[in-house]
Amino acid sequence: MIRIAVLSLILAFSCDFLSPTEVNFISDSDLIEMQEIDFIIIDVRTSDEFSSGYIKNAMNLDFYSESFQNDLLSIDKSLPVVLYCRTNNRSTKTANILKENGFKEISVLEGGINYWVKNGNDINYTTYSK
User: Fold this and answer.
1) Are 26 and 108 in contact (CB under 8 A)?
2) Burial code of 93-123, b = ≥16 C-beta within 10 A, e = fewer?
3) pTM to 2 decimal places
4) Which pLDDT band, with edges at 50, 70 and 90, does 56 fall under?
5) Phi, psi dihedrals of residue 98, rounded to the nearest 5°
6) Is 84 in a helix, a strand, or coil?
7) In this structure, which long-range contacts are made by residues 117-124, counting pairs with CB atoms below 8 Å and at least 24 apart in sequence?
8) For a Cys-Cys bond, which of 55, 73, 80, 101 suits 39, CB 3.0-4.6 Å?
């Protein structure tokens, strides 16, 4: 009986080990190379921060908004997701939320938009027309 219990524990842990969801930290050059594949890029800064400059094709989901988790979890789980914020704090927390909710391909831009800009990469700006 003890052997069965031990074997069951080994199998349970080995299944998690064989297919873990990893949160990958990627560089700005890694993100640039990803432009050839289909993925979702999410800026989790506030809307004011977003309007001060964002990475091309990024969608803004404000980490502090009341609807953040619902909006986040409505995203297509089948696509890779790249997250960024100012420095990595909010994006790493967001990556853990995605991981806990069954997302499989999750990446965080190392150093956030601060490193993106520091390394000379382009940013876009929101323009409003009345």
Assistant:
1) yes
2) ebbebbeeeebebbbbbbbbbebbeeeeeee
3) 0.81
4) very high
5) -60, -45
6) strand
7) 117/53, 119/28, 121/28, 121/32, 121/55, 122/56, 123/53, 123/54, 123/55, 124/53, 124/54, 124/55, 124/56
8) 80
Q: How buried is residue 8: exposed, middle or buried, by Cβ count under 10 Å (0-12/13-18/19+)?
A: exposed
Position 111, amino acid? G
Give the C-alpha separation, 31 to 111, whole Å: 12
Name the 3-class secondary structure at 88: coil
**Which range has the worst mean pLDDT, 3-7, 51-55, 99-103?**
3-7
**How is residue 104 written in tokens?**
């499989």
- How many Cα atoms are found within 13 Å in the side-chain-facing hemisphere of 68? 20
